[in-house]
Specification:
The chain is an alpha/beta fold and 107 residues long. It contains two helices and seven strands; from the N terminus they run βαββββαββ. The chain has one domain: Hypothetical Protein Aq_1857, Chain: A (Sandwich). It has a four-stranded mixed beta sheet with strand order 3-2-5-4. A hairpin with a 5-residue loop joins strand 2 and strand 3. The model has no long low-confidence stretch (mean pLDDT 87).
Length: 107
């Protein structure tokens, strides 16, 4: 299941409108981060293996296999000092190879 905070919904809706974008937003597993992998967002098309959730007129996708692996996913927008951006977190860690991290971004 995907949950999108109100702040993230507002920021994403503004971005999509400003850039005339209508594609679904995918939560996917990206290579990188201190644990080797992290969850990220990208525009994509619906596939047969996706779970689909809608918030504020926007469609969010996640592959069923990934959803089972990471549990619930939360998409948020954070503003901390000079850093701001979308943060995607999950119930279960996505660290690979016995790695772990303490940054709170991909675990």
């Amino acid at each position: 299941m995907i949950d999108v905070t109100q702040t993230a919904q507002t920021k994403l809706a503004d971005y999509m409108k400003q850039n005339s974008l209508t594609a679904p937003i995918r939560v996917y597993l990206s290579q990188g981060g201190c644990s080797g992998q992290s969850l990220a967002l990208a525009l994509d098309e619906l596939k047969d293996t996706d779970q689909k959730t809608e918030f504020n007129g926007m469609t969010f996708l996640i592959d069923i296999t990934l959803a089972e692996r990471v549990g619930g996913v939360t998409v948020d927008f954070v503003e901390e000092g000079c850093r701001s951006g979308f943060m995607v977190s999950s119930e279960k860690p996505v660290a690979t190879g016995g790695s772990s991290c303490g940054c709170g971004c991909s675990c």
